[in-house]
Model the fold of this input.
Amino acid sequence: MSITYVDAIREAQEKLLKDDPRVFLYGQDIANFGGAFKATKGLAEAYPGRVLDSPISEDAMVGMAIGAAVDGMRPIIEMQFADFSSVAFNQIVNQAGTHYYRTGVPVPITVRLPSGGTPGSGPFHSQSMEAIYAHYPGIVVVTPATVSDAYHMLIQAVELDDPVVYCEHKFLYRWLKANSINGDGLPLGRARITRPGKHATIVAYSAMVHEAVRAADRLKVESGWDIEVVDLRTVKPLDMDTVLASVARTGRLLALGEAFPWGGVTAEVVSRVVTEGFHLLDAPPKRLNSRDTPVPYHPNLWAAHRPTPETICLAMRELLSF
Done:
């Protein structure tokens, strides 16, 4: 029996509730309704008083969670969409992110952000916020791309004493399936070589890992190019050891992300590789992101807005031809 990405998130929360009495869930319509994407379905009945509906105020949700965490609890906050977390921005970056630095008291909250685009979602329900939160010290930002990581990284996030922004991709919720949640034991902060290769490296994360693999498979069939795909898994901290080791093997780099192009994770990866591994490069590094416009509603426009296997292959051919 297969398990989906969103099922893995639900199962992780169920295990956390079962194993740790300090854990509780808080969010809009997550109790009886089970959440906008059913990631908490049935948990309120199984754990009464620990799966709580919140007011429609992201600011209040995170503020309450910070207070509870300071008092010894381990709250998991569900944002209905990552975009709405901007309403709680002050609480996340100015309160949770700095609290340990200011007081020596940790704030072990986990904020789940349903991230990224799906056809027809439009500009207010499709954004990728990981780089914004990664910009601030004191916050761990994770971006699971597999069913196994969706499960194990959420458990690891809640066990951390640091505030964690957990970016789960909505497009993967029911599309991505696996036979089990068994993982390879990688800790938070460690990248994974998803597809070995020798001619170029694609560094990606979240749903773009799968688009990168599709593009790499296509290039192998069409041209014989063997492309290595690195899944960052965690964008803060950033595992540059794995990235640089891959670039050392291949000599070429494409940094791939779904977020907007200005700044962001791909810019950080390119900057760090150029600074720390310029001597490893045989060609100027490239990066590929979504277009620098709000995310469009129409499915055809959305498909043209974000990187696809076709646009990834085009960028890779340019990189390989240098």
The mean pLDDT is 97.
